[in-house]
Amino acid sequence: MIMFLYSSFSMILFILGLFCFVSNRKHLLSMLLSLEFIVLILFFMLFIYLNLMNYENYFSMMFLTFSVCEGALGLPILVSMIRTHGNDYFQSFSIM
């Protein structure tokens, strides 16, 4: 019963995070924050799964390390884009 509650709650949060990521395409900062929210929900789901199956939590620490590296790479990209373009509007960035 508790497994069903954890899984349904985490899936609802994951879907809400994906919806927030898809609908907030105006600012780069809001997109990065919604990606971090999705990563945290995935970490929560992984942690619950590993604890319920009585596995080691070593993989969850590796996942958390990679997600911190992802966040540490996203922030300098945001700062450099704001310095070059003057804002963080996603529509003002060009692929070229």
From TrEMBL:
<keyword id="KW-0472">Membrane</keyword>
<dbReference type="GO" id="GO:0042773">
    <property type="term" value="P:ATP synthesis coupled electron transport"/>
</dbReference>
<feature type="transmembrane region" description="Helical">
    <location>
        <begin position="6"/>
        <end position="24"/>
    </location>
</feature>
<dbReference type="GO" id="GO:0005743">
    <property type="term" value="C:mitochondrial inner membrane"/>
</dbReference>
<protein>
    <recommendedName>
        <fullName>NADH-ubiquinone oxidoreductase chain 4L</fullName>
        <ecNumber>7.1.1.2</ecNumber>
    </recommendedName>
</protein>
<feature type="transmembrane region" description="Helical">
    <location>
        <begin position="58"/>
        <end position="79"/>
    </location>
</feature>
<keyword id="KW-1278">Translocase</keyword>
<keyword id="KW-0520">NAD</keyword>
<keyword id="KW-0813">Transport</keyword>
<dbReference type="GO" id="GO:0030964">
    <property type="term" value="C:NADH dehydrogenase complex"/>
</dbReference>
<keyword id="KW-0249">Electron transport</keyword>
<keyword id="KW-0999">Mitochondrion inner membrane</keyword>
<comment type="function">
    <text>Core subunit of the mitochondrial membrane respiratory chain NADH dehydrogenase (Complex I) which catalyzes electron transfer from NADH through the respiratory chain, using ubiquinone as an electron acceptor.</text>
</comment>
<dbReference type="GO" id="GO:0008137">
    <property type="term" value="F:NADH dehydrogenase (ubiquinone) activity"/>
</dbReference>
<comment type="function">
    <text>Core subunit of the mitochondrial membrane respiratory chain NADH dehydrogenase (Complex I) that is believed to belong to the minimal assembly required for catalysis. Complex I functions in the transfer of electrons from NADH to the respiratory chain. The immediate electron acceptor for the enzyme is believed to be ubiquinone.</text>
</comment>
<keyword id="KW-0496">Mitochondrion</keyword>
<dbReference type="InterPro" id="IPR001133">
    <property type="entry name" value="NADH_UbQ_OxRdtase_chain4L/K"/>
</dbReference>
<keyword id="KW-1133">Transmembrane helix</keyword>
<keyword id="KW-0830">Ubiquinone</keyword>
<feature type="transmembrane region" description="Helical">
    <location>
        <begin position="31"/>
        <end position="52"/>
    </location>
</feature>
<dbReference type="Pfam" id="PF00420">
    <property type="entry name" value="Oxidored_q2"/>
</dbReference>
<keyword id="KW-0812">Transmembrane</keyword>
<comment type="similarity">
    <text>Belongs to the complex I subunit 4L family.</text>
</comment>
<dbReference type="GO" id="GO:0016651">
    <property type="term" value="F:oxidoreductase activity, acting on NAD(P)H"/>
</dbReference>
<keyword id="KW-0679">Respiratory chain</keyword>
<dbReference type="InterPro" id="IPR039428">
    <property type="entry name" value="NUOK/Mnh_C1-like"/>
</dbReference>
